[in-house]
Amino acid sequence: MEPSVLQELAAIVAPQPLLTQPEAMLVYECDGHTLDKAPPDVVVFPTSTEQVAAVVKLANRHDVPFVARGAGTGLSGGALALEGGIVIEMCRMNKILEIDYGNQRAVVQPGLVNLHLSLAVSDAGFYYAPDPSSQGSCTIGGNVAENSGGPHTLKYGVTTNHVLGLEVVLPNGDLVHFGGAVLDTPGYDLTGLFVGSEGTFGIVTSVTVRIMRKPQVVKTLLAFFDTVEAASNAVSGIIGAGIIPAALEMMDNLTIQAVEAAIQASLPLDAGALLLIELDGIEDGMEADAQRIADICQQNDCQNVRVAQDDAERALLWKGRKEAFGAIGRLTPNYYTHDGVIPRTRLPEALTRLQIISHRYGLRIANVFHAGDGNLHPLVLYDERDGEEVERVLKAGHDILQACVDLGGVLSGEHGIGLEKKNCMPWLFSEGDLDVMRRVRQVFNPQELCNPNKVIPLRGRCRCGAVTGDGTPDHETHEAVATAMQDAHVRA
Amino acid sequence: MSALDRLATSLQSVVGEEHLLTDAAAAPYAVDDVLPSLVALPGDETQVADVLRLADEHAATVFPRGGGSHVQLGATPERVDVVLSVERLRRQLAYEPGDMTTTVQAGMPLSDLQGVLGAQGQFVALDPPATAATTIGGVIATNASGPRRLLYGTARDVVLGVSVVTADGARSKAGGRVVKNVTGYDLTKLYIGSLGTLGVVLELTFKVHPLPPGEETIGIACAGHADLLPVLNALLRLPLRLNSLELLNAAALAALQAGNGATVPPAPYLFLARLEGDAAVTAGQKQRIAEALRGLSLSAPATTQDWQSEDQQRLWSCLATQALLPDSVAAKIGLRITDVAAFCAAIEALLADPPWLLHAHAGNGIVSVQIPVGKGSEETLLAQIQALDGCVERLNGHRVIERAPVAVKRRCEVWGPVGDNFVVMQALKASYDPRHRLNPGRFIGGL
Ligand SMILES: Cc1cc2nc3c(=O)[nH]c(=O)nc-3n(C[C@H](O)[C@H](O)[C@H](O)COP(=O)(O)OP(=O)(O)OC[C@H]3O[C@@H](n4cnc5c(N)ncnc54)[C@H](O)[C@@H]3O)c2cc1C
To answer: Residue B164: which H helix or E strand, with range?
Structure first.
């Protein structure tokens, strides 16, 4: 980047320094998706909306690409500066601007860490519902961009259901406001359209969110099963009984082992699967619902149901869930996190297919996921120093996503498409569908300078590969998986 | 042969003679008293696409339509070339109770869908004022909502995926059929409430909910507007499973009583709080409400009343019907929840005669005001709208005129003023419908 441009940038964000040293760029060359890397030319740390707008205008004048970045915990390469240019790091804009308990609203800057909002309103009896497992570090701005979820989205919805208004610096540098504290703003729902646009429609500089009253009571149950099939059936049973728990999470044996090693919560190491079930709401009827759930688990051959006796035990069980990814990290140098979704009733089939994929590629796959809404998180364990293994990981990833699509599901439930799954979009969407999305992006981002080349493959360049890699959908692999599945059914 | 005649001939060959209406047969499809030249009733999705493509080729404007129960929403059009009604596309395409999702065609009546889902103990959490004709597509296009939005939200919270035909006749889809999905841009949100200005909705996938095990409604009568905020705050603060919290003024209560036989107490204001749960679960909640009310210092003690089973059903269905009162100017107003009481006071101070009906989703800050038309002249009504706007502006709210005599609509800004985001809305419209074929001029800012 030209020194004169850097000077102009420095003047905009002064006295905050710019980062340009190659060593410093290493931190910014990828996000939580570590298989793809590209260093930016410069990182800026704006402290106000005006600075963000000025940086964006400057980028436009000089035709330089730019991308907003929160905490960099994204798992689909969203914050990666694919074509170099400017990373606009939002972490200095982390203030809570307003809390209005009477209207159950808060206005926050995008760099605020998700958990910090819940902590700030906790004493008043409130919380912010969307709770990604990364909530201790990820930012509200990143959540808005990814439309992030979390374990409690089964009952309360994902980020989009809790965002009421946005202040946005458009990719041309203009400042606009969408929605607001008052519901049902007349006109198109631009807030809803923007949430989940993965940093490609502009940069959020303030967010109006709904905060909710904490539930009167919370009850957390842990049920252990011999097999993931039995646990899946219990999930169907609970939903079928008309109970919507606040959370309904599953872990398989490999995950249980990893979590137990990490947090020592007396989990039975021989269990094939566990369900973490949380009920919340008013106390009336809670015991009865908990009993019904325990009964349903028993009817599905559950080994044992454990009820958290106090807040400390509840916190421990959740710690196990929220840190499960980290716990898996202790078993392996690297793991690849997937995020496919399937219709809930196809859970047993999906898990069988994952087993087949695991065997086929000789890779360990741990499963820890949002069972209630069919959002799978297969973690594929590997060692990035082994190039041949990385190849197999990519192929396995391809098969995993293909399985989700085959079962009527989608590519991502909460981590986004980003760079990672961009080339798989044609599995779900026709060229016509993608064209409509491209045109909408053009409305916001006509110069393609704002987080270029993410989410949707460029027209005519939608060859699809093993997730990040290249090549068309591998029909041979695909058929082989289908045959193997049939075999598995015959054996069962 | 005029362009419209040529279009009629082409459309006939697409939808069949009996499904292309003209003249008298087209009259029931008038949009704000403007008669359509042609009404096309396509029988499948390909026909919808063909109708749109042909209309585009013949430079004809197209007005998408569902059951016609909410067609008054939007500015009055200059001329209506083609009404495209999706009323024949009324099938449920998929329903898996275990997945709690269903996919339907846009012309399916809402009540039919609720019937099918109800048989499985489920429902789609949308309860706007509706008639038997109200279609799912119409509800989504107008973003219509009802009392249950307090607990379940609105269309944006329950629509998972959508397929549309755009003005050029091209079909596309967005979203999916699973309950959680971030694959691609969330265009479903864009189509909800877009009043058919971006495309014609063909199919919709919904997330459904289990029916509550039981319900009970508590009425809380308040002696004056000064008591409203304390009661509202107390109710919203209590641990309750509250799915609706409505507020009615005396005029709305009187109309309810007179209109269709719901028994409601006369009172300056009445909150209606609908609780979920079986009898044991609602009993505990009622007790908490009673205790909380006793603890408030109000100008006069709030009196309460219960509605259960059939009485309760009648009450809520009367409420919904009343919202569609024909002979009125109906305005939908959005406010901060804590400003609803101040708004009631402001309306009271106007001393309107005959009095305005006020009915609020109080827990959401959404208020519906109905100004009786009666013998009121156009000028009087416009003056009343102006007075209403004053109250809304002072509280930084927004308002939409949802229904009014056409002469009045032509002279007022039905959607209210536009904001700094209007450039984006214009650009979206231009991108989807560059030749302004779909519902031209009816939406905000003349889109
Ligand atoms: C251990 C772990 C667990 C996780 N668990 C979950 C989970 O349970 N649920 C879930 O949904 N996700 C989860 N994630 C993924 C990730 O945390 C979320 O996607 C999160 O929202 C990213 O936030 P961030 O601040 O790190 O954003 P970044 O990674 O920095 O950026 C993500 C995207 O947001 C854009 N962006 C950031 N700030 C802005 C802004 N102000 N304006 C516009 N665009 C912006 C970026 O350009 C990028 O495209 C997990 C990640 C990890 C590492």
So the answer is: strand B159-165
- Measure the CA angle with vertex A77, ends A369 and A373; round to 5°: 20
Rg (CA), chain B: 23
Rounded Cα distance, B310 and A268, in Å? 51
Q: Which two tokens stand for residue A101?
A: 């308990």
Model pLDDT, residue B70: 85
**What is the domain count for chain A?**
5
**Distance, CA of B347 to chain centre:** 23
B99 CB within 8 Å of a chain A CB? yes
What are the tens digits of pLDDT across the range B29-44?
A: 999 999 999 999 999 9
Do B225 and B256 form a contact (C-beta atoms < 8 A)? no
SS3 B352: coil
**Encoding tokens for residue B79?**
């001329």
Q: What pTM, to 2 d.p., does this model score?
A: 0.95
From the CB of A141, is ligand 1 less than 6 Å away? yes
CATH of B215-319, one of 3.90.380.10, 3.30.70.20, 3.30.70.2190, 3.30.200.20: 3.30.70.2190
Give A15's contacts (C-beta < 8 A, 6+ positions apart). none
Let me know the angle formed at the C-alpha of B140 by B139 and B146, rounded to the nearest 5 degrees: 50
Question: Which residue out of B53, B139, B183, B237 would a mutagenesis test of the A interface target, given it has the greatest number of A Cβ atoms within 10 Å?
Answer: B183
- Establish whether residue A382 lines the binding site of ligand 1, counting it when its CB lies within 6 angstroms of any ligand atom: no
pLDDT of residue A479: 42
Residue range of the domain that includes A259: 215-331
Find out whether B231 and B127 touch, Cβ atoms under 8 Å. Answer: no
Query: A317 pLDDT band (50/70/90 cuts)?
Result: confident
Look up residue B198 and give its DSSP letter: S
Average pLDDT, chain A: 92
First to last CA, chain A: 61
B387, exposed or middle or buried, with CB in 10 Å at 0-12, 13-18, 19+? middle
Is residue A32 within 6 Å of ligand 1 at its C-beta?
Answer: yes
Low-confidence ranges of chain B (pLDDT < 50): none
Residue having the nearest C-alpha atom to atom 13 of ligand 1:
A132
Closest CA to A454 of A63, A22, A31: A31
The CATH code that applies to domain B92-210 is 3.30.465.10
Q: Are A252 and A368 in contact (CB under 8 A)?
A: yes
Same domain, yes or no: A221 and A312:
yes
Kindly indicate the confidence band of residue A283, based on its pLDDT and cuts at 50, 70 and 90: very high
Distance separating alpha carbons of residues B103 and B183, to the nearest angstrom: 18
Q: Which of A135, A113, A116, A138 is nearest to A31 (CA)?
A: A138
Chain A closest-CA separation from residue B8 CA (Å) = 28
Pair (A100, A79) in one structural domain:
no
Quick one: DSSP state of residue B189? H
pLDDT tens for residues A420-462?
A: 999 999 999 999 999 999 999 999 999 999 999 999 998 754 4
Residues of chain A found within 8 Å of residue B174, distances taken between Cβ atoms = 433, 436-437
